Amino acid sequence: MTLGNKQRHRTGRVGWLRATVLGANDGILSTSSLVLGVAAAHSTPSNVLVAGVAGLVAGAMSMAAGEYVSVHSQADTEKADLRLERAEITADDQGEHKELMAIYVARGLDPSLAKQVAEQLMAHDAVGAHARDELGISETLRARPIQAALASAASFAVGAAIPLLVTALAPAAGLIPLVSGTSLVFLAVLGGLAARVGGASVTMGAMRVAFWGALAMAVTAGVGSLFGAVAPV
């Protein structure tokens, strides 16, 4: 590999990949399960579709809000740690030099070389050196709440649109098998794609997502059928 080429590592994809995959997976699974549960309760096709649309809107907003709050909490923690680190560097610069040096020695550097590295890095960017090597905070893996919220909401909506489209086009008699079948196929594809992008086994990723998807849809359809059977006419 020449120096002009830049390697692209998978860790740079972790933030947006997690939010996107989670959103799309939840969109397909929760909406298809909702549709199947309502359909199994002997509701009319129009009521099933309305329930699915309501699930899409509510789910997308819930995903965005939940992801934003969760990732923002992580970002707040990172900012607090960085403020504390700045204060420690101001109060005890030499102590922070020794702390950084000890980290490099523990990683295998010779003490004299570790001292030189710590001095040069702190002279260049003291807070950045401690954030990266002491706290594990880097620009690549830093929490981005708005990006995570938008990715989750958009991917949920796209995922939820798949079973909704099938619901709108399928005949009433074949709605349950068509929605469940197509949803499982898309879940398996999504699981395999996520595994491939993340460097894991495509087959295992697809099977894992499809299994839990089938279980969730079966349970929801069973509950809907049960309530449909006991509901007053």
Structural account:
This protein has 233 residues and is an all-alpha fold. The chain has a domain at 15-85 and 144-228. The protein is built from 7 helices and no strands. Helix 2 crosses helix 3 (93-106) and helix 3 packs across helix 4.
Note the topology:
Blueprint: H1 14-40, H2 45-91, H3 93-106, H4 111-133, H5 145-169, H6 175-198, H7 202-230
Helix pairs in contact: 1-2, 1-5, 1-6, 1-7, 2-3, 2-4, 2-5, 3-4, 5-6, 6-7
The gist of it:
The chain is an all-alpha fold and 233 residues long. Helix content is 81%, strand content 0%.
Task: Give the biggest beta sheet.
Answer: none
- Relative helix content: over 70%
Shape: elongated
Termini, distance in Å? 72 Å
- One letter per element, helices H and strands E, the order comes to HHHHHHH
Overall strand count = 0
Could you tell me the strand content as a percent range?
under 5%
User: Structural class of the helices, strands and pairings?
Assistant: mainly alpha
Low-confidence stretches: 1-7
Mean pLDDT equals 81
- The count of helical stretches stands at 7
What is the radius of gyration computed over CA atoms, rounded to a whole number of angstroms? Answer: 25 Å
